[in-house]
Amino acid sequence: MLATQLAQLLAQPAGVPEALEVVAGFDAALVHGFARIGDEQAAALAALAGAVGGSPLAAPVAAAVDKLGTGSIGPEELSALAAGRAALLGAAHDALAAQVDSTLGRPRAEWVAGAAGATEPGNLMAGCRSWLQELAITGWRGVDHDLVAAADKTIEALWAEPAQRRLAVLLDGLAAELGASCPVATMARVPAKRWADLWARALLLSWRGPETVVGTPVSGRLLILGVDLHEHGTAVQAQAHGVLEAAEGAVHRVRVSVSAAKVDTIVGPAIWQLLGAHPRLLQALAEHRALEVTDLTLTAGGDLLWQDERAVLGSAADPFATARIQLAAATGSAAAPLDRDPVHLAEPVLLEGYRVKDGALELDGHRLSLELDRLPSSGPLTPGLLTGSAACLGLLRWEAGHWTLRPLAVRKAVKGVVTDAHAGDWACGPTDPKVVKAQAKSGDSVTVLRERAGRLLRK
After folding, report:
1. SS3 of 32, please?
2. Residue 272: pLDDT band with limits 50, 70, 90
3. pLDDT at 117
4. Which long-range contacts (CB under 8 A, 24 or more apart) does 208-212 make?
5. What is the number of alpha carbons within 13 Å of residue 223 lying toward its C-beta?
6. Which whole number is the average pLDDT over 371-396?
7. C-alpha distance from residue 447 to each of 237, 266, 272, 443, 453 (Å)
8. Is the model's pLDDT at 162 over the cut of 60?
9. Torsion of the alpha carbons at 339, 361, 412 and 243, rounded to the nearest 10
10. Average pLDDT, whole number, for the chain?
11. Which of 69, 121, 169, 410 has the most CB atoms in a 10 Å sphere around its CB?
């Protein structure tokens, strides 16, 4: 990325700050709940209605706001408000994605919708909406253990329906976060946007039946740019970003995601052992090699659904060279409707000719904040390596109202020798002698836990 391109990116598209301000106002109103609407909450709701006034949502959102003013609201009206909020975030997402595409000269595909199933009838979806309605009326500050526990039976029933697994995971996660935060009234700071995101998405999903995944079988050469590790106390996901040179000649920007369950004691390089069911992918990450893939499904959202047995390791492929040569011509994917939120933006970019100062990349006086707190402990990337580096591969993301860069790899001259460090370098085990020694001293936590689990099962 050049300095002129960075300057263009840092100038926000018209209307984006205003749209996000309206969403923030609605989220703040949700913190205190809709049981009693004060002047500030009323103004935030009126702003939401005004913001979608020129869209098909104008009438239902305006009607919902009016009904809230009378002190009564049902799931249908709350769903209209959730849809209005989602529409504003979607508009901001589209404007920012278009800004990236025009600035970097990248093509992007149009969204192809899948066939939606019939809306689920019966008491199950009604139970979901009823609990979400109680949350909205009570507000996050009023959430206690009794209100959280009221969702237990509904969530249990959702888990029993494979077609509703997406909604089950979402509601289960929201309930778990709320339960761990109770009593919310004593929290110094409420994660208003995050909980509003989960609440709104769950409410909208409750009106939709199971969707058919739209995808096409593809074969070709996969060139990996880097891997972004998403780690939670009970799960881990490695999301590799890359370029697929399809056999028919098209070039796509794609994501490959593999996940595994974990416990919170498994951290650092040991994380990779949990993803051992995908040895070819891990080897490609560790050795920077291409993969020849056959008949994998590429979804409309840009996800390459991974099947390790359909991949063959190819020759060495330098991610920095791939980014320099292929990224501009590779076609990006459109976002699914419910994923049209600026927080989901993650565009791979290559930056050169910068300097690192005070946690940001500086390029001709323009600053791009670095997500140094997201550097994984499972790889060799450290903040120190970024200082003095000559090139950085990363994900351009939108966070808290501005662009940030999440580093995936750096290139740096160390004692006259050019050295690369990638987040996935330790996918097949650490290569740093100090880390290997420390790991040997502390023991293999994954092996120990598996052995103990085996003993329990045998008993």
Report:
1. helix
2. very high
3. 52
4. 208/116, 208/117, 208/119, 209/116, 209/117, 209/118, 209/119, 209/120, 209/163, 210/117, 210/163, 210/164, 211/114, 211/115, 211/116, 211/117, 212/114, 212/115, 212/116, 212/117
5. 22
6. 91
7. 20, 11, 12, 9, 10
8. yes
9. 20
10. 89
11. 410
